[in-house]
Amino acid sequence: MEKYLINPNQKISKIKKEIYGNFSEHLGRCIYEGMYVGENSKIPNVNGMRIDVITALKEMGLPVLRWPGGCFADEYHWMDGIGPKEKRKKMINTHWGGVIEDNSFGTHEFFELCRQIGCEPYICGNVGSGTVQEMSDWVQYITFSGISPMSELRKENGREEPWNIKYFGIGNENWGCGGNMNVEFYADQFNRYNVYVRNYYPDKPIYRIAGGPNRNDYHWTEVLMQKCRHSMNGLSLHCYTGTGNYALEFNEEQYYDTMRDCMLMEEYVTRHSEIMNRYDPQKRIGLIVDEWGTWHKVEAGTNPGFLYQQSSMRDAIVAGLTLNIFNKHSDRVHMANIAQTINVLQSVALTDGEDMLLTPTYFVFKLFKDHQENTLLGSYITSDKIGQDKNVPNLTESASVNANGDIVSTIVNTSASDASEVLCQIADINGIKEIKAEILTGSIHDHNTFEKKDCVKTVDFTDFTKTSDGFKAKIPPCSVVKFIIKQ
Ligand code: AHR
C-alpha cells in the first residue's frame, strides 16, 4: 500500500491557469482545417472558426493560445496577413511542408479565434528575419487606440477598437530556426527589440517573453538572466518528448522509455529554476514552457512536414506526468503550451474534413482543469521506480485547494500492467463531506479513431473508500485519476 500525504497547512503557490495553455502554429493542418476553415466552408463555423473545435477547446478550459509559431513565427511578416483576403500575399511555408500559405488567417482572425474560445492571446514576434520596426508596428497596430499610422490602418481594416495583448514573445528558438544565434547575441537582440514593444497603456502592460533555452541548455538561461532580467517577464523553455517510434506502434519497453524521457522535464525545470532563483529570488520572472509534448514519427502516408500523429493513452500519461510536474513547480512555471492544439504533434483534437475526435490528451487537460487558479498544497506519495531500467516513477501526484476549500488531487499510475493501492491522508482535516473522482484509463495503445471516437474517455471512478482523513483507492494501471475532496 503506497502512502499519499497532503498537507493543507502548506500553501505553496498559485497554479496559474496559463499552465494549461496550447500552442498553435501555421503548420500542417493545425490552423487551416484544424481551427480555421473560412466563412464559406461547408464545415459549420462562426466567422470562419469551426464550431466543433471551438466548443471542445472552451469545454477544456483553454486559458491561453500561442501563435503564429514556432519556427514559422521568425519567418512571418504580419502585414501580409491583414486587409482584404483576396489581396493578401501568398508565401511558401518553407519550414513546414513547402506548402502555399495564403495568409487568410492573420492578426484579425487570431483575435477572433481567441475571442470565441475565451482565451488570452499569446503572440510570438519575428526576430530571426523581421525588423525592430516591424515588431513595433505590429504592437501599435494591435494595441493603440489613438491616432497613429498603424492604428489608422487597423481601423481601415475594419477594427475600430484596439485589442489587448497580454503575452508577447520576442522570437522563438533563436538558438535554431529563429536565427541560429548564440545567447550573447540574442540577449542583445532581445534588449533592443524589447524597447520598441511599447506599452501604450500603463494599466495593460505587455508581459514580455524572451526566447529561452532548449531542454538542458543551462548556459542560455544563465546569460539571459544576467543580461535581460530587468526587461523580461518570462523566459521560454522548449522540451519535447521525442520517441523515435510511431504514435501507435511501440512496445512496452519503448513505452517506459517515453515515460523516462518525459520525466526529464522535472530535472530541466528544477535546474533552470535554480539558475533563475539566483538572479530573481522573488520569482517575478516566469518560466514559460511554451512548447512541450510527445514527438513521434510522422504517420505513414502523411506529409512529413505536417507532423501529424495519432495520440494514445501513452500520450495521455505523458500529459498527466507533465502537468503534475508543472503544478509542483508553479512557483516558477507561470505558463505552458502543449504543442500543438489540433492535428500536429500531441494534439488535443484531430480533424478529418468535417469530422473531429478528441484525443486522450484532451481528457487529461479536462481532468486537470480543476487545478486552474488553485493554490498548490504540500504533498508527497511513496512510489517504486518501474520499467526495464527501474527509472520511471510508478505514481506521481499533485494537490491543490480552491477558493471554496475543496482539495483537488491528480494521481498518475504509469504502470502498463499493475494497479496500485494508495492510502491518502490529509493533515488536520476536520471531516470530509464528500469525495468525487473521475478517471481516464485504458491499455497503453488505446486511442480514439474517427470510426470509434469514444474508446478512451473519462468516466466516474468509484474504486475507493472514504476514510476519516482521506481515502483508500486502487488506482488502475495506465491511468490518470482526479479526486475532489469536499470538506
Ligand atoms: O512545434 C514544432 C516546432 O518545434 C516549432 O515550430 C519549433 O519552435 C520547435 O522546434
Largest beta sheet, briefly? 10 strands, mixed
CATH superfamily of the largest domain: Glycosidases
Number of helices: 9
Ligands present:
alpha-L-arabinofuranose
Going across the biggest sheet, name each strand in turn: 23-22-26-20-19-16-1-21-25-24
The top-level CATH class of the largest domain is Alpha Beta
Low-confidence stretches: none
The fraction of residues assigned to DSSP E strands is 25-35%
What is the annotated CATH architecture of the largest domain?
A: Alpha-Beta Barrel
Radius of gyration, in angstroms, nearest whole number: 22 Å
**How many discrete domains?**
2
The number of E-state strands comes to 26
Question: Any idea of the CATH topology of the largest domain?
Answer: TIM Barrel
* Averaged pLDDT: 97
| Helix content percent band | 10-25%
Shape: globular
Q: N-to-C terminal Cα separation, in Å?
A: 25 Å
Structural class: alpha/beta
Structure description:
This protein has 487 residues and is of the alpha/beta class. It folds into two domains: 2-9 and 377-486, Golgi alpha-mannosidase II (Immunoglobulin-like, Sandwich), CATH 2.60.40; 15-373, Glycosidases (TIM Barrel, Alpha-Beta Barrel), CATH 3.20.20. The protein has nine helices and 26 strands. It has helices at residues 51-60, 107-117, 132-143, 149-156, 183-195, 218-228, 252-279, 313-328, 360-368; strands spanning 2-14, 21-23, 45-46, 49-50, 64-67, 91-93, 99-101, 120-125, 167-170, 207-210, 234-246, 286-297, 333-339, 349-352, 355-358, 375-381, 385-386, 392-393, 395-401, 407-413, 420-426, 434-441, 459-460, 464-467, 470-475, 479-486. The strands form six sheets. It has a ten-stranded mixed beta sheet with strand order 23-22-26-20-19-16-1-21-25-24, with helices on one face. Strand 14 (349-352) and strand 15 (355-358) form a beta hairpin. The model has no long low-confidence stretch (mean pLDDT 97). Alpha-L-arabinofuranose binds at residues 25, 69-71, 172-173, 291, 339-340, 345.
